[in-house]
Amino acid sequence: MTTVVCKFGGTSVADVERINAVAETLMKHRADxxxxxxxxxxxxxxxxxxxxxxxxINPKGSARESDVLLSTGEQITIALLSMALEQRGQPARSYTxxxxxxxxxxxxxxxxxxxxxxxxxxxxxxxxxxxxxAGFQGVDEQGNITTLGRxxxxxxxxxxxxxxxxxxxxxxxxxxxxxxxxxxxxxxxxRLDRITVxxxxxxxxxxxxxxxxxxxxxxxxxxxxxxxxxxxEPGPGTLITFEEDDTVEQPSVSGIxxxxxxxxxxxxxxxxxxxIAHAIFxxxxxxxxxxxxxxxxxxxxxxxxxxxTVRRAEMEATLALLExxxxxxxxxxxxxxxxxxxxSAVGVGMRSHTGIAATMFEALSAENINIQMISTSxxxxxxxxxxxxxxxxVRALHRAFRxxxx
Amino acid sequence: MTTVVCKFGGTSVADVERINAVAETLMKHRADxxxxxxxxxxxxxxxxxxxxxxxxINPKGSARESDVLLSTGEQITIALLSMALEQRGQPARSYTxxxxxxxxxxxxxxxxxxxxxxxxxxxxxxxxxxxxxAGFQGVDEQGNITTLGRxxxxxxxxxxxxxxxxxxxxxxxxxxxxxxxxxxxxxxxxRLDRITVxxxxxxxxxxxxxxxxxxxxxxxxxxxxxxxxxxxEPGPGTLITFEEDDTVEQPSVSGIxxxxxxxxxxxxxxxxxxxIAHAIFxxxxxxxxxxxxxxxxxxxxxxxxxxxTVRRAEMEATLALLExxxxxxxxxxxxxxxxxxxxSAVGVGMRSHTGIAATMFEALSAENINIQMISTSxxxxxxxxxxxxxxxxVRALHRAFRxxxx
Lengths: 406, 406
Description:
Helix content of chain A is about 35%, strand content about 25%. Chain A is α/β, with parallel strands linked by helices. The first copy, chain A, has a domain at about 5-175: Acetylglutamate kinase-like (Carbamate kinase, 3-Layer(aba) Sandwich). In chain A, the strands form five sheets. An eight-stranded mixed beta sheet of chain A has the order 3-6-2-1-9-11-12-10, with helices on both faces. In chain A, helix 6 packs parallel to helix 8, helix 9 (about 275-285) runs antiparallel to helix 10 and helix 11 crosses helix 12.
């Protein structure tokens, strides 16, 4: 018997009508003879009011109690979805994270899963029941309720799939798969039938927010095939596989992503001495700011220019943090620029294709788009350009790599 | 060290302001050097929207899933109240029913408490924390969430007090104690300083809805002193004791209660044969309808008239149930009357005082109030009168037993 884990996010269970639609989708899987575990998030914005009340009562309430509060959101959804299945004659049983149990460490708000016992779920599946599990939440070894933090429901789904050795983990979302580029920018962007975990990790980390990096990593580690598909429209979605299909000729580039959430910080004329990078990036890392691309140009004069990107929301704080440090280091200046876009070409096919970078630079140059920074990895080339060129750059690269062609 | 369990119902935690007020009350108990466990209900009408959604999805959703849904209400309150205490510098820790654990049987929606392990709570109290426990809910031996049904939070409070061998269980409510009569009807009704559990049981079952019968029974069994007091105004409230204070001269009557929720059913001219009562009340009991007072008059003609009271909401259904049965029994007629009031005088002092019934009948007669039914127990005399006389009867009896005098 095929076992599938299906995950529906907050938008997909936002109201009674949507919950009934999810129940219908699950009934189809049952009719196909599949054993079904479903993981759900809190309904739409239902926890917003709770968060507001908590902030009013105590702006610095403990993370433990915040988790107790927030975990009610999914608990409501599992009960309602179970009732919707019962209404359709399908036996169902809901489980909170603590009931499964999904044992986590004790880091409230960003707990990591340590262990999942699949026995109860398996017994329910064997008895013909649909298991309805609360996403995003777990329980630590002392019995405290924990939450997994952002994207936690995806992680729950993949982790349950791993524990159950499920055949597939289906992530239902508001898009019907992973595209060669953002369809809102590139009208002829194509849905990809398959994508490797490695590519998906690059897509996710580059701002194509279909799936959280953490859940994709998890899927890769346990070799769980994930399928991303729409909870609103039928379709096969995109399968994220851990196997590179060597029998098929890989295209050089699978997709073009863009990220407008970064900002650039430039430090000019730092004396090029040992420990400079550590002094700067050590401080940034200690403050928990996220640095992505780093470019260093060493001049003939023993001075170096250092440019790097941070999350846009963290730019001002990073500048404030670094100003005294770079002044101590004897640098000439530090400045920030919020008007940048990071454009990337991603594809495992890059490993066996050459000339990708050349094609990329040529396409941008043909549109007179100046490249401010370049960074490459084995399956990705990223460039930073002025943000007003973001859409033009994506479209130019999508065409240059012939991604509109099936 | 004194240990107290405090319980606040839905009205007392209805919004952020009220939750903060509850936290202030608890801070005073802490300042008095008391170890504090607090039991809370769901905020005001917060679960109404959930119940509506559930009814829309599945009017006959399973009781198991209904309990999963409803138990989120108290879980929200415990988190917010814990945060309110933390905000005041008071360490606190919240517990759901399952976390404590409060182990119950598996009757979803009306579960009975089987066992409470006080170890975690005691450890928290010893560490100076306030324990914030969810009322109304528990967990069965298979780990399913259960709810205790109506008045469940009071039962939780008393049960926790018993498990902890607490010195007092304080039930905060919207009245500041138990009164000699309903102050809305009798302006000079007095708050009682003390009342015995037996009296309180009669008060509760007679419609003075300060406390649910079940929690009072529980308190009596485990000899937990309960104090009923106002969550809105300071004051000593009323102490419900399990000891009858023999050193003090008891007044004959402690209070007058009235109940407008009953209806009367009269069956005329039933042939007086063995098994008649069983045929009638067996059927009513099998249908789970509540019968209270029963009066039977046997005539000289071998026929009997049977009158009894049921809950008003159940009158029509009881009539429908009984019509075919009494027709088979050969009775002349069956009829219902919704316009009745049950008025009762309650007091453990009745045991040692005589003439209570005479005083009662005289007072009602002086007001020209006709008595339709009479029922007596060791510490209570109840009469049924036409409902339009209810207030007049309560005032007359309150005066006749001099309850306005301290």
